Amino acid sequence: MKKLILASILVFAFTDAAFAAVRTVTLSVPGMYCAVCPITVKKALEKVPGVSKVNVSYEKKEAVVSFDDAKTTIKALEDATFEAGYESSLKATGKEDSAK
């Protein structure tokens, strides 16, 4: 009986990890107005738990972010840029929500 309970606990413990996926989204960050702005946005996004990669383009006024969707959300990414002084929103392109 103890083995069955232990096995059940282990199955449930690893179930969330099995459904987690790395997602890549593009955020529009229209408020970037100088060459230093992308550095600030990148640092803010890198502090979000689960973020694995951030590329910020001043010219395109966007940030491409790869993250573990079991650890964070798009809302948390948007909140991080907002707290750094830059509003952002999910950009509608073909790059969003790609699982790797």
From TrEMBL:
Gene3D superfamilies: 3.30.70.100
Main location: other
Locations listed in the record: Cell envelope; Periplasm
UniProt GO molecular function: mercury ion binding; mercury ion transmembrane transporter activity
InterPro entries linked to this entry: HMA_dom, HMA_dom_sf, MerP, MerP/CopZ
Domain HMA span(s) in chain numbering: 23-89
One matching Pfam family: HMA
Top-level taxon of the source organism: Bacteria
Keyword terms: Mercuric resistance, Mercury, Metal-binding, Periplasm, Signal
Listed SUPFAM superfamilies: HMA, heavy metal-associated domain (SSF55008)
Secretion signal, residue range per the UniProt entry: 1-20
GO cellular component, one term: periplasmic space
Function text: Involved in mercury resistance. Acts as a mercury scavenger that specifically binds to a mercuric ion in the periplasm and probably passes it to the cytoplasmic mercuric reductase MerA via the mercuric transport protein MerT.
Protein name per UniProt: Periplasmic mercury ion-binding protein
